[in-house]
Amino acid sequence: MRIVVNTVRILVGILFIFSGLVKANDPLSLSYKMKEFFEIWNSDLEKSSVFFSNLLINLFQFLHDHSLSLSVFLISFEIIAGVALLLGWRMKVFSWLLLLLTIFFTFLTGYAFYSGKFTNCGCFGDCLPLSPGTSFLKDIALTILIIFLFVNRKKISPYFSATTNFIVLTLATVLSFGLQWYVLNYLPFADCLPFKIGNNISEKRKMPVNAIPDSTIITFVYEKDGKKIEFTADKFPADFKVPPYKFITRYDKVVRKGKNNEPPIKGFVLRTSAGEDSTDIILSEPYCFLLFCENFSTPVKYWQKDFEKIKVAADRKGIPAYIVTASTNEAKIALSKTPFARIQVLECDFTAIRTAARTNPCLYLLKEGTVVNKWSYKRMAEAVKYLP
Fold first, then answer.
1. N or C: which end of the chain has fewer CB within 10 A?
2. pTM of this prediction?
């Protein structure tokens, strides 16, 4: 039995470490996914009559506002717990924590699967996307393994001395938090998003060639004798006549979901202050710089000097530079007393900006719409070396 317990312990420990490291590459991805969960739950609670709904709404709003901190903590705990499991360190404590964490994730993936409101649960980040169904089955299997370890936790003993275990756990803690600090400041090590270097944004905005659209049928809604009646175009009631049937509305009802029927890049539209769509024009430029600023929570003074050097060098070579933001009014105020007061500011959907820019701000160099390179604002000065 001890051999089986140790085998399961090693397997689960490696899985937790792997899962944590994959997510640590881009903690913002998990943060955005958790925000999506909290927003949907609050929306459902606002429509419900649960007597403690206000308490839950306030709780979920708090977690929504602090989702990045929660994301960093959960990812770090996954890595630390996985290492502790491999070491066999303090299993009385970690067996409980692992069980509670796994039940929590199983609930999330189960909700994602049965609600049908999610296409990806974010369990392994954007680098290893899993469908909600696959994630749910994975978590059920993992829960069973954790329960097995929980029941047999007394059979697990530390492999190394207390001092060695403490040193290893300390290093794992520093690594888990340090890795996430780095990618949050300097961009992920592995870029698994559709805006990665080498991708052409124009092409990624198109529907995949193997896309299968949703199959829909027109459904009519009529009212008869105070009751709403729905029927499709090929199944009108035998007694249909106006009146007594009164038309209410019509809609397309999905009878079979399509597959791969969304472009990799959605909502990426660049509009001028006049509301003109300039996306195709900008993506056809021989070269251009785009500075993505979702908002101006990072003050301009922190990146003004480096971006000014880039803009001056780009102007000499006739390469345009733009600022892309979801907050144009905020941009006017933030840039008004800087050298960028007259730079062209383009408006874009904040979700598209979040997908493109994992730091705020983030600089892109494009060549005819293809991403040549991108930099965190803390490494923006390096962009000068890439000027043609």
1. N
2. 0.84
